Amino acid sequence: MVSIDHVAHKILTYFPYVLVLIDIRFQGGKCGKDGSVDNHMEMGKKLLAAGQLADALSHFHAAVDIDPQNYMAYYRRATVFLAMGKSKSALPDLSRVIELKPDFTSARLQRGNLLLKQGKLDEAESDFKKVLKSNPSDKEEKEAQSQLTKSDEIQRLVAQSRRSFDDKDYVTAAAQLDTVIETCIWDVTSREMRAECFIQMGEMGKAISDLKAASKLKNDNTQAFYKLSTIYYNLGDHEMSLSEVRECLKLDPDHKQCYSHYKQVKKLNKQIQAAEEYIQEQRYEDAVSKYEAVITTEPNVQHFLLLAKERICHALTQAQQASRAISVCSEVLKSNPANVNVLKDRAEAYLQDEQYEEGKPDICSCIKVLQDRGWVTFCLLAGLTWEQ
């Protein structure tokens, strides 16, 4: 039997050697790490210069992982992020650089520029002022002073635009925000305010453009998706409305406004799709019934009301129900006299009912509208000619 004293003696005998090995291993590991960081930094710089951004980024990722205190690794990685158009990722790296090396003016100046583009004017001005106080190069001093002046001007315009908006002077507010957004291209607040101006001005296309940008600039911007969905809905685009409200619910399944709107749009979308399938299958009475259900579901949005009646007009014409078709088609044409689809269908219904004289003006109107658009053959292809 081996005694405990003997085992203890053996351990104590080898212990100094163990300590030496641990010390050597520790020092060797540290040297290896330093060499590895240098290697990654050098490779990253070469790849960045060659425009191989993804590969360069991998090396700077590795450098940061190995040495989290290496401010230059963060700075190089931020440079790659900026070259890739990923400013959101660059900003935390620049902040880390400044935390590790507060006198690194290039990093602070770059961060100030990013903050200015985001519309974070107070934070941007703070960076520009610190650059000016930190013994910058002539180039850095000139840029910081220029950006500080620009930021002051933007501050003034933002205040003016808010006053104009509060006064319901949406045209002036939008013009002022145009200038703000030229500089603060990633400013979510300014884009959302300008979108609201465009909505009030009835310029829905421009509102959609700003809201789409706002939805991308802010990760959890459920309100932007909700507004986009309601705009598309009021424009009669049920498919886009459904798509945008689904994006809202992906971010927040419990969003009350989005969920309520989703149920409405989904129901309407389903009814319209079913009605169109019935028309394709030549089940015209079923199509008429389904479009009448669309009117019941949404009686207040003019686009859907006109769409439903236009398609009912078409279905009744195809079903050879001339009298009913003429009545519905005429109702649509009171609101939209240049609707070529309805002109064609009503003309065809008149011909079915042997009311040839009544049908001729519709054929003329149809051809005139399409001549203006360069689509004369549309009516002619339908078999509706003056001779008929």
TrEMBL record:
Keyword terms, alphabetized: Disulfide bond, Repeat, TPR repeat
Biological process (GO), any one: protein folding in endoplasmic reticulum
Positions of TPR repeats: 37-70, 71-104, 105-138, 222-255
Name recorded for this polypeptide: DnaJ (Hsp40) homolog, subfamily C, member 3a
InterPro entries linked: DnaJ_C3_Co-chaperones, TPR-like_helical_dom_sf, TPR_rpt
Provenance organism: Astatotilapia calliptera (Eastern happy)
Gene Ontology cellular component list: endoplasmic reticulum
SMART domains: TPR
GO function term, MF aspect, one: protein-folding chaperone binding
